[in-house]
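Re: that backbone. Tokens:
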């Protein structure tokens, strides 16, 4: 099988620090054969393969992983203002959602996927109520995980929906459109999904043999509802849905553990409100974590506790969340949001969150790093790089990105 040899000013492998004057060797099926210093890698391959060396002036890195998206909401871009907290934000989202036509939704999804491709994103953790983005993602060769989300506090209604998921899926997709996208049912949150439904969804996800996802500790009103049964969430549920659920009145993370939601098979999204001892518990349980700093800034004007997450030993991925709470789907802009506020964290480790950590939290260790045997897609930013290449990348998000060697994926239409 033929190979391509890339010799770059800088290689950012994703999982380890940058390599100055580096090289990457890629097989035509997208598998990484070798990576390291150009002076060591190129002589090993140039003579035997007969391939010419392609010189890249700039930075080479793996395809990006956006570990938390709601691509189906992309038509809401710019329509939902922030700064009023989660309840105010979701109220505005729900009010405006019906005003968006079927065509606008489809166009929004297509434009969003164009943006994913343009930014060099190869995989997403897509949370979806409607499955609307699944086929478009598959068509464009974007992989990752589909989390089929359910919410509702009325037990009978929500359990009917849980029981109907399989039939809904089979009707919508007589054959699943991509081998590169996993599927799992998922609870929305612990305060919007009846606890019996949470249990059933987590159990059902296990039968698909893949991990699922849960929005967790996103905002203060969530903890207040679960732990005390009062505050903005119960008031909102009563006013909008005429619902008055019985609240567990138990510490949020105790409740999560009781339902089986602290596990390596449940991706915890947000953790903005998680305290140090709760993060230690998440780490101890081996639960994967994704942080969405720009979405949290938009909605609650608050950042996730990055330093405490790192101190707990959690290797979190990054996600943009939806365009209803973010300006773009560029996961490197999430890394940049952290770089601006936590200048003590090495820039390459923030890029790692958008590549290798993202791949790992989605259970996709074939992605997210330029390492022998992986197939992450090889991305380049061609520019005169000054200083640390990872910091340069984060300061120059508008530079064009080009897939030098795309992932080779199989799409079944
Ligand atoms: Zn979300």
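Recovered sequence:
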């Amino acid at each position: 099988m033929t190979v391509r040899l890339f010799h770059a000013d800088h290689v950012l492998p994703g999982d380890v620090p940058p390599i100055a004057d580096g090289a990457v060797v890629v097989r035509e099926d997208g598998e990484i054969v070798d990576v390291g210093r150009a002076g060591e890698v190129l002589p090993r391959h140039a003579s035997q393969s007969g391939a010419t060396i392609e010189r890249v002036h700039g930075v080479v890195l793996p395809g990006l992983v956006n570990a938390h998206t709601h691509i189906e909401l992309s038509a809401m871009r710019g329509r939902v203002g922030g700064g009023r907290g989660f309840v105010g934000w979701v109220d505005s989202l729900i009010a405006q959602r019906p005003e968006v036509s079927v065509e606008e939704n489809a166009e929004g999804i297509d434009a969003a996927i164009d943006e994913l491709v343009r930014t060099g994103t190869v995989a997403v953790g897509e949370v979806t109520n409607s499955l609307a983005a699944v086929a478009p993602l598959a068509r464009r060769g974007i992989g990752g995980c589909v989390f089929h989300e359910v919410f509702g506090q009325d037990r009978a209604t929500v359990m009917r929906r849980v029981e109907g998921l399989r039939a809904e899926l089979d009707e919508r997709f007589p054959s699943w459109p991509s081998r590169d996208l996993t599927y799992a049912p998922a609870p929305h949150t612990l305060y919007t999904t009846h606890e019996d439904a949470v249990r059933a969804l987590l159990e059902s996800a296990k039968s698909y043999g893949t991990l699922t996802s849960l929005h967790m500790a996103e905002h203060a009103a969530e903890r207040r509802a679960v732990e005390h049964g009062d505050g903005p969430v119960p008031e909102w549920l009563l006013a909008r849905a005429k619902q008055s659920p019985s609240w567990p009145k138990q510490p949020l993370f105790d409740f999560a553990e009781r339902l089986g939601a602290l596990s390596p098979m449940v991706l915890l999204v947000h953790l903005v409100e998680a305290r140090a001892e709760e993060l230690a518990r998440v780490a101890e349980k081996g639960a994967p974590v994704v942080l969405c700093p720009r979405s949290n800034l938009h909605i609650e004007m608050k950042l996730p506790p990055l330093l405490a997450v790192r101190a707990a030993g959690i290797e979190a991925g990054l996600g943009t969340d939806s365009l209803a709470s973010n300006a773009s789907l560029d996961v490197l802009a999430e890394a940049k949001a952290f770089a601006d506020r936590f200048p003590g964290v090495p820039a390459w480790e923030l890029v790692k969150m958008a590549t290798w950590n993202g791949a790992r939290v989605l259970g996709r260790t074939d992605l997210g790093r330029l390492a022998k045997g992986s197939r992450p897609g090889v991305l380049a930013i061609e520019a005169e790089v000054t200083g640390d290449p990872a910091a340069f990348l984060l300061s120059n998000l508008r530079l064009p990105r080009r897939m030098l060697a795309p992932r080779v994926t199989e799409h079944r239409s």
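The longest strand covers residues 53-62. The chain has 16 helices and 14 strands.
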